[in-house]
Amino acid sequence: MSHNTYNPFIHAQQQFDHVAQTLELDDGMKDLLRSPMKEIHFSIPVKMDDGTTRVFKGFRMKHNEALGPAKGGLRFHPHESADTVRALSMWMTWKCAVVGLPLGGGKGGVICDPQTLSLGEQERICRGFIRQMHQLLGPNTDVPAPDVMTNGQHMIWMLDEYETITGGHYPGMITGKPVNLGGSQGRTEATGYGVIYTLEALLAKKKLNIKETTASIQGFGNVAQYAAELYTQLGGKVVAISCWHQKDQKSYTILHPEGLNIAALVNIKDKFGSIDLDKAKALGYEITNGEAWLYQEVDILIPAALENQITAESVPQLSSKVKIICEGANGPTAHEADALLFEKGITFIPDFLCNAGGVTCSYFEQIQGNTNFYWEKDEVLTKLNLMMVNAFERVYALAEEKNIDMRDAAYTIAIQRVKDAVQLRGWA
């Protein structure tokens, strides 16, 4: 999908408009909620290792802060665009609202390619970002986090610069930090585990025993790996995993009808989530094309890699056995496919509910940082399970009551929640 044809911000606005119509929002409210309320664009001058100065473009979009401080990741990407960041800030608003977090939606980005920059240059970009933004960031105003091509080290450089400028300790001003410097236990597993917590809740509704189910997964990065681990621990059987190969620049599906050994696959994957195919063959697994994961005879599909994977063309070809889709990735289902899945009787848990475990755990990290008191991993995961299941129950109940799909139900709850906050504050 080229950067020219797919505009995520238009996609985000279409999803919003569709639900805004059914909620009968007035024009003022619609105008307010379909675009970010604040957009900050700035330049970051950076002294490069060779002594020259390069100027990097940065953005921070705050979609809506009626429910609480803006929350959302920072991406470093050579193709970062203002429209991508606008869309992601909007999706963060709905994601926080559907789970019931007292947070608004924000997102940030810098146009750069960390793969071509030294660590020193990356550090100077991080510190430069904070120098441009520090007045608008803080534990009670706007809380960034890692996203595409950023990690805990980048967050610590940013925190250090923020604390240097402000002259205090504010571990709650940024999340996704290493555990020994104020990060939260359980954060690594949180998104993947959250996918399975919502799946368990749905299986209970459908009176299905997880031990008798099979699943096929796209991806083997952080989200997919921990989802696969928890699902198999609970007795489910993963029969296919599709992953991308850097070397060949294409994806493959690894198959075994009796189920894959997830721990064995974790041992033969690299840091990008690519599984060593020769070693997978040696384990007795079949290797086939990258799309095959989608067409397996399984009960559950878990797209946890790329957007736009389940399309209007692919829905008719899905196995009649498929009952559930858990959207671990952002936007894995094309807009036109939703109605077809609904007609087919396939229940899908929408991305901004299904993969909200990450932001929920970031919220826990923020609380722990602000109170300077840190929880054990079991406590984090217990609280995470409770919040994810409660959110799922609300969305499922509304979908059943109105006979709509779960995406429309989740959007209805999220938009209603933000709309109420906006009205109570007297903004519209």
From TrEMBL:
* Stored SUPFAM superfamilies: Aminoacid dehydrogenase-like, N-terminal domain, NAD(P)-binding Rossmann-fold domains
Q: Which reaction does it catalyse?
A: L-glutamate + NADP(+) + H2O = 2-oxoglutarate + NH4(+) + NADPH + H(+)
InterPro entries, from UniProt? Aminoacid_DH-like_N_sf (IPR046346), Glu/Leu/Phe/Val/Trp_DH (IPR006095), Glu/Leu/Phe/Val/Trp_DH_C (IPR006096), Glu/Leu/Phe/Val/Trp_DH_dimer (IPR006097), Glu/Leu/Phe/Val_DH_AS (IPR033524), Glu_DH (IPR014362), NAD(P)-bd_dom_sf (IPR036291), NAD_bind_Glu_DH (IPR033922)
- Coiled-coil segments: none
Decide whether keyword Oxidoreductase is in the record: yes
Q: Which domain of life is it from?
A: Bacteria
Domain named Glutamate/phenylalanine/leucine/valine/L-tryptophan dehydrogenase C-terminal is located at 184-426
Could you list this entry's UniProt keywords, alphabetically sorted. Answer: Oxidoreductase
Give the signal peptide as a residue range, or say none if absent.
none
Q: What does this protein do?
A: Catalyzes the reversible oxidative deamination of glutamate to alpha-ketoglutarate and ammonia.
Family indicated by similarity: Belongs to the Glu/Leu/Phe/Val dehydrogenases family.
Q: What is the official name of this protein in its record?
A: Glutamate dehydrogenase
Which organism is this protein's natural source? Wohlfahrtiimonas larvae
- Gene name for this UniProt entry: gluD
